[in-house]
Design brief:
two-stranded parallel sheet; 106 residues; mainly alpha; single chain
Length: 106
Amino acid sequence: MSASRGILRARRGGGHEASRRRGWANAQDFTSAAVSEFFSVADYQLIAHAAAHGHTVVTHEQPQAGAKRRVLIPNVCLALGVDFCNTFTMLRSHSVQLDLRLTPAS
């Protein structure tokens, strides 16, 4: 299955993994607005794709126990066993180096 088909399948709510994410979000103590927003933005699709293909989700969000007004990416990842990290950890793990030296104008 291609990556795009996996995302589309998750977007439609099909498959065991997609049902599991929906079930988890609905079983928590989130506001209905938080759950509705979570399933209407890319966060849900990114986590579904990462879970289906064994990828790591990169986010600046931090896990927050007891969050109710917003479904946070790290909370979902922790609950469902999907790896996540922040941008800086991802850059370090790939040995990315930024060269900010100015080059002389020609």
